[in-house]
Records
---
Amino acid sequence: MKRIFVFVLALGLLAAWGMTAPSLAADKCIDVEKASAKNLEKLKGVGPALAKKIVDHRKAMRIKATKAKKKVWNFQNWKTLMKVPGVGPKLCADNLKTLCFNDKLQKACPAPDKKK
């Protein structure tokens, strides 16, 4: 009887783990829209100075949008984030599966702009 209980309990735990596994993957990303500078420092290639630039840029753009009576401003994607000095294609490539925008990972880094 004891063995049956342990087996059923183990099956229940495996089933519960299987149902929550996808959400665990989403929880691992650092959301640039909400992250503190300390959290952004966990990204490859982001130190205290760059993390502060990202947070300051996000704050400034949100204040600007509020003053213009526009909806809330967000980075939305890597292309917008790359407007912050110091954020470029290498940082994107290194953190594509780690950094998300509104809890969504981007599939690829943006193509470089063609300069005329």
---
Amino acid sequence: MQGIGDDPALTTVYPLFVAAVSIHLLEVEVLTGDNTADILISMSKRLQVLFDEGEFEEIKGVAARHQMTVADWVRGALREARQAEPRFSDTRKLTAVREATRFEYPVADIDQMLSETESGYQE
């Protein structure tokens, strides 16, 4: 297997690439004032999203107001949107409820259960 040091073209270009990435990460850290650079190093997937100029300028403005890079703001917005989505479909939930109702479980009178619960708090 050929390493980076084995290819003369890469030997010349690779240090420049590493330097450029390091400078960019330092700029990000200075801009955001946090450990965003460390987070960026561990990320492995890239997503390209195209916006028209006006929409991009709005997003850029919102990110700036939050003292974030556009990428950080977009990641946060996508994370919030993903967390707002239900993890399981309604069909799967209904199937679980229907399955559970096929069995008989021991159930006490509601007043008795509330009483026992309350007495547990008082101990």
---
Amino acid sequence: MRYHSRKLDFEGENNEVKSSSILAQSFVRYYFLEGTVRPIVCAAIGIGSSSFDRDSNEVDFDEDKESLFGYEAGTGVAFLFSKIFSVDFSVEYNYLKSNPEDSDFEVETSGIVSAIGFSIYF
């Protein structure tokens, strides 16, 4: 589950911009080999929604909403420091498509990202 929220106030102006998004994802990660350094592959897919609201003393804007669909796939390496803890480094391809409500167009974004994560195994 990913959640993002942002509020921007413009100095010297009576304008405010608020945005938030939530994306629910399922993911899988596979660890190869044995030992303390293990190659990994990972993939995820998810759906969600986003909203964008502008407040201004001069103009009244409606809140914009959109549905989201995304997936990612990547590879990396995990450094296991014990049986229950690792630090993971990965490079992933990400894709996200948004469909604004009351609109006939779609917005698609994609790119390569790198990530560092910590894993705790139970």
---
Amino acid sequence: MEDCEQVSRQLEEVLDSQSLPLVKGSYLLEVQSPGINRELKSEKEFQIFAGHMVEVKSRESIAELGCCFQGRLLGTSQHCLIIGNPQPISQGQHRGQLQRKTKVVQQDTIIQVEVELSKIISICLHPCM
């Protein structure tokens, strides 16, 4: 939150100091964080966040990983996401509600996996990494 406030103040100073205003009239500047578990949706976002840990939910089971797994987003290739060092994430019940656990089931055999974009329900930045 402090980072957003700092960016907002600095950007406001720059905008206000321009001899030719970028924005005519009064304006409201809002700087927001995308959130800790931001969902990635576009090719551009996949490129920007390449190298980051992500959590993937797919429409069908992917190899031994199942439908929910995490790994490092390596990039894209012909309508596929490339995920490095993928590890399945277990899911469990807690007091009648589905609760996502970050317990990773060890899986040392798969170095990377390519998943067709059409098979992905969601891909989010991993909140713990």
